[in-house]
Design brief:
This is Prefoldin subunit 2. Pfam families: Prefoldin_2. Belongs to the prefoldin subunit beta family. It is a single chain. By secondary structure, this protein is of the alpha+beta class. About 45% of the residues lie in helices and about 15% in strands. The chain has a two-stranded antiparallel ribbon with strand order 1-2. α1 packs antiparallel against α2. It is rod-shaped and about 70 Å long.
Length: about 110
């Protein structure tokens, strides 16, 4: 959402006169600057936000892969609330080979 907000601001101030006054919030303080000074800073912030989003998505994919490998290594199957188990073969096994993990119980 912040990246899209930065894009909206950039699109709104690009066509304006670079010497025109504008206000920018920096650390909770509103400062007066010119568009010529603010536009590059907003672009850098947007690029930084996009870079962070990319790194977080890569980290998420790595963690998903780690969880999948962990589940396969220890034969963990997730039990769904309706009693079915998440399993590639789609069948329920009666023997006790592996660990079944169910949803956390709600205690009041």
């Amino acid at each position: 959402m912040e990246a899209s907000e930065h894009s909206l601001v950039m699109n709104a101030i690009k066509p304006l006169d670079p010497s025109r006054r504008c206000y920018r919030m920096i650390g909770g303080v509103l400062v007066e600057r010119t568009i010529k000074e603010v536009l590059p800073a907003v672009q850098r912030n947007k690029e930084g936000i996009e870079e962070v989003i990319t790194r977080l998505n890569e980290a998420l994919e790595r963690k998903k892969k780690e969880v999948t490998e962990f589940e396969a290594k220890y034969k963990i199957r997730i039990r769904k609330p309706d009693g079915e188990m998440k399993d590639e073969s789609g069948k329920k096994e009666g023997n006790a080979q592996g660990v079944l993990v169910g949803p956390a119980s709600v205690s009041e």
